[in-house]
Each structure stands twice: as structure tokens, then as C-alpha cells.
Write a structure and sequence with these properties.
The complex is a heterodimer of chains A (202) and B (213). With 202 residues, chain A is mostly helical. In chain A, 68% of the residues lie in helices and 0% in strands. In chain A, helix 10 crosses helix 11. Chain B is α+β, with helices and mostly antiparallel strands. The longest helix of chain B is centred in the first third of the chain and has 16 residues. Classes of the chains: A mainly alpha (202), B alpha+beta (213).
Chain lengths: 202, 213
């Protein structure tokens, strides 16, 4: 039988920002509208790590990550008065970051570097010994990186940001069925790529 | 992966489509109940659920130094000398768009994780005093590439790598164990190519004369 306890633990490990209530959101954004720098710092600290983590996976040009993070916070500071509370504050902020990230990706003109090529080229390479990470973690990361940006975003939002599919649909400005379909394709790809690892993994 | 697959109507497929969000605990009670009812009778979906749980547990969060990042960002804001960024929209954005060091305190473990996820952001030496927070590393003048060696690389590995590539050490190790090097400008692309093939090197990236990547 499935492990409900495990699921509940996962739920309980959500990010601090995700637990921020709508009332907290409203109070925070109201202070920011009044140009309260302490409030802005509070928001920055709540979201900087989450945004960086999200962009770390989504953007394959590492030099753009901090630029997109900064752009996102500039918009939050500049346009705090446009947040109307229809969504969670986190949804609004991630939607800004997602749009900025996708725009940055579209402007990308250099090929993505394949940083795993050296590992794959060396059959004797043992990252588990040298770096303390398992081969399956590397395979998983490679498999995720092979997804399209939209599919990567859904995977990131779901597995690592622990968001619901409705919130993801708002952030990505698409129907909920599109989110589910993207996830369906992404999971199928991950399963196929990790096929040889699954028995040992699970 | 562009083929359209219609899943509506089949309870098994409906449950499979919801499993990732069942695993992360974000389904509403009715959806959750429906998925659990199906899971009770479906070994395949129970197995699928283990995949979702395993993926979520595999990759830990990347450590991010929010303190230093905020110091740099606030420093940029304070340069505005006015309460609203929007009043100086273009100059403000120009300054704030400048890349600042993430300050990720990458331990050897985190460097390995960065290798795994395939993207590594270096704490690049700051090009502009406006962003030089007190806690930030010093500016490394004249460096034109940055390197992270594998955690198990030896001193001999580092020395041999520098000598073979005609590289001079400008700065480092930084907090993330990175080294800023200088090589002849016309050789930089070739050196970068060799460094990226070097088994002792985790990352090698160019940085421009102003310190930006």
C-alpha cells in the first residue's frame, strides 16, 4: 500500500513562503506599496532562494539567472500596486519570473553546454566515489535537462516547488489540462530515461 | 514529445495524471479521495506514485546566500537617491540588471550538485563599486576566465593546468572555491576548450574585461 505518511511529510516540508497566508501576503505587499524597505527585504529573503532554485533549473545560461532574479524583484518593487490579491503572492511573483525567464531563453543565441558530456564519455567515471552523488541523481538531472523549457518548468514547479497544477496553470498562463499534459509527457520521458535505474531506485 | 494524447474519461489515466500532485499534497479533498480509491486497487499506479516521490526526494535545494545577494541588490536600490525605482526607470533597471554575485556558498557537495543540475553560476568578481557590498569578495582585476576544480583535484593538478595553458592566477580561491585566471586574449577560447576537457575541472567560463561573464 502506498505510504501516506511519506506524502504527509512531503507536504509538511513545503517552503516557508508557500505557507505564507493570503493575509500575510496582503500585509507585506501593502507595506511595500508604501516603499517600506524592510518589508521589501523580508519579501526578498522569502523568495530569493526559491526563485534562484527555479531559474537554476529552467535557464541553461547560468549568467542570466541573477539578472532574471533582479529583474523580477524590480518589477515587484515597481509594480506592487498592481498586485490585486486574486492569486497568492507567490503565484504572482513566480509568474513574473517565469515570463522573464522565458523571454531570456528566447533571446538565447548560444548553444547550451553539455556539462555531463565528460561524465558520459568516461565509462570508468564514478561520480558517486568522487563527488558523493549517485549516478541516478546525475541521470535524473540529465533527463530533466533534456525536456523542453515548458516541461522543465512544470517538473520544477511540481516536484521541487511543490505547487498544485492550478497554481502552475496561472503562473504559466495556460489551461490546467495543458499543465497535466505537459507533466504526462515529462514523466513519460523521465521514466524512459531512468528505466534501467528504477528497480534499484525504488 | 509533441504528440497529443487524450486521457479524459479513463479513471486509471485520470489518476495517473494527478499522481504528481497527489504526491506533493496539493490536490483538493475530492481529487485526493478519488486518487486514493484508485490507488487501493491499482498496483501500477502505486508503482507510479513511488516514482513521483523518488523524484521529489532526489535533488536537494541549492544553497543560496541570500544575505550577500540582498546586500548587493539593496546597494543598487540605494543608488537611486529617490524612493521609487520607476521614477528613474531606465537608469535604475540598467544598474539593477547588472549581474551581481550570487554568493552561493557552494561547498564541495554543492559544486557536485551544480554539476548534476547542469548549470553553475559563478560568484563573479564585481565590476562596479556600486554593487560591491562589504561582504563581497574583492575585485579581481584583469582576470578573463574563471575555473572551478574538482573537489578532489590536487595541488599538482592545479599547477600543471595553469602551466600547460599559460594561465596566471589572478584571484581565488573564492568562497565557492573558484579561481580567476588570466590567459592571453587570443588564446582564451582554446584554453577554455582544453579546460573543459580537463578531468580535474568542473567548470570553466569566460569573463570579460569588466569582470562580467
Amino acid at each position: 500500500m502506498l505510504s501516506v505518511t511519506r506524502i504527509e511529510m512531503t507536504t509538511g516540508q513545503r517552503h516557508e513562503a508557500a505557507n505564507t497566508s493570503r493575509a500575510d501576503d496582503a500585509r507585506l505587499i501593502a507595506r511595500i506599496r508604501l516603499r517600506d524597505m524592510a518589508a521589501f527585504e523580508e519579501l526578498y529573503r522569502l523568495y530569493h532562494g526559491r526563485l534562484t532554485r527555479f531559474l537554476f533549473r529552467l535557464i541553461h545560461r547560468p549568467t542570466l539567472i541573477e539578472e532574471v532574479v533582479n529583474d523580477t524583484f524590480v518589477v515587484v518593487w515597481d509594480r506592487a500596486d498592481t498586485f490585486n490579491g486574486a492569486s497568492k503572492l507567490s503565484t504572482w511573483i513566480f509568474a513574473i519570473a517565469y515570463r522573464k525567464a522565458m523571454k531570456a531563453l528566447r533571446q538565447q543565441d548560444e548553444p547550451v553546454e553539455d556539462r555531463q558530456a565528460e561524465l558520459r564519455a568516461d565509462p570508468d567515471h564514478s561520480p558517486e566515489d568522487a563527488l558523493g552523488h549517485s549516478w541516478r541523481q546525475i541521470l535524473l538531472a540529465q533527463a530533466i535537462d533534456e525536456l523542453s523549457p515548458d516541461h522543465r518548468a512544470v517538473v520544477e514547479f511540481t516536484y521541487f516547488q511543490e505547487m498544485g497544477y492550478r497554481e502552475i496553470a496561472v503562473i504559466m498562463d495556460c489551461p490546467v489540462d495543458t499543465v497535466k499534459t505537459r507533466m504526462f509527457h515529462a514523466r513519460r520521458h523521465l521514466k524512459r530515461r531512468l528505466a534501467g535505474q528504477l528497480p534499484d531506485w525504488l | 514529445m509533441g504528440r497529443i494524447i487524450h486521457l479524459n474519461g479513463d479513471p486509471h489515466e485520470q489518476a495517473q495524471r494527478l499522481l504528481p500532485w497527489y504526491a506533493n499534497g496539493t490536490l483538493d479533498p475530492s481529487e485526493r479521495g478519488a486518487v486514493e480509491a484508485h490507488l487501493a486497487d491499482c498496483a501500477e499506479c502505486r508503482n507510479e506514485l513511488r516514482l513521483d516521490l523518488a523524484i521529489g526526494a532526489e535533488i536537494a535545494a541549492v544553497p543560496v546566500d541570500a544575505d550577500r545577494a540582498w546586500a548587493a541588490f539593496q546597494s543598487g536600490l540605494n543608488q537611486r537617491r529617490a524612493p521609487r525605482i520607476s521614477q528613474f526607470s531606465l537608469p535604475a533597471r540598467s544598474i539593477l540588471r547588472r549581474r551581481v554575485p550570487l554568493g552561493w556558498a557552494l561547498s564541495a557537495q554543492a559544486v557536485a550538485m551544480a554539476l548534476i543540475v547542469g548549470v553553475v553560476r559563478m560568484p563573479v568578481p564585481l565590476p562596479q563599486p556600486v554593487y560591491h557590498a562589504l561582504s563581497a569578495p574583492s575585485v579581481a582585476a584583469h582576470g578573463n576566465l574563471v575555473v572551478i576544480f574538482r573537489p578532489d583535484a590536487t595541488e599538482e593538478d592545479l599547477r600543471r593546468t595553469l602551466m600547460r595553458n599559460g594561465a596566471r592566477l589572478v584571484d581565488g580561491p573564492t568562497v565557492s572555491d573558484a579561481y580567476v585566471l588570466r590567459v592571453a586574449a587570443d588564446q582564451r577560447a582554446a584554453v577554455l576548450g582544453r579546460l573543459r576537457q580537463n578531468h580535474a575541472v568542473v567548470l570553466a567560463e569566460p569573463i570579460d574585461a569588466d569582470g562580467q561573464p
